[in-house]
Amino acid sequence: RTAPALLEIEDLTSSYGAVRALDGVSLTAEAGRITAVLGANGAGKTTLLRTVSGLVRSSSGRVTLAGEDITTASVESMVGRGMAHVPEGRGVIAELTVHENLRVGSLFRGKVDKSEYDRIYDLFPRIAERRDQPAHVLSGGERQMLVIGRALLAQPRILLLDEPSLGLAPRIVAQIFGLLRRLVDSEGLSVLLVEQNARSALSVADVGVVLNLGRVVVTDSARTLMADEDLRHAYLGF
Ligand code: ATP
Question: For a pocket test of ligand 1, which of 14, 22, 37, 45 has the largest count of ligand atoms closer than 8 A to its C-beta?
Answer without folding.
Answer: 45
